[in-house]
Design goal:
This protein has about 100 residues and is α+β, with helices and mostly antiparallel strands. The chain contains 1 helix and 5 strands.
Length: about 100
């Protein structure tokens, strides 16, 4: 669910209150998500996203990467150990 993967930062020309990304699922449907937080762990950044129409609910976590031009994009976390570390760090952050 990460085809669009464009991170809308403060310098983008979109008019919005929160940073919003549009993710495309396996069936080609687009879904808007709000970036509610960015977690830094072991030198990598992870975007915490919730569906745009819900400020609370189940979060989606994706790793933030940059291409050769510095354009940021989001990718799935496929490594189980990395996923476990990120979820634990997010849960610790949320508990504070």
């Amino acid at each position: 669910m990460t085809d669009h993967n464009h991170v809308h930062g403060p310098d983008c020309d979109h008019d919005h209150e929160h940073d919003v990304v549009i993710l495309t699922d396996d069936e080609g449907n687009e879904h808007e998500f709000v970036i509610v937080d960015v977690l830094e762990l072991e030198g990598k950044n992870y975007a915490i996203l919730v569906p745009h129409d819900q400020e609370e609910g189940e979060a989606v976590i994706l790793r933030v990467e940059s291409d050769e031009n510095g354009e940021e994009y989001l990718i799935d976390i496929e490594d189980d150990q990395e996923w476990d570390r990120v979820v634990k760090a997010y849960e610790n952050l949320a508990a504070e």
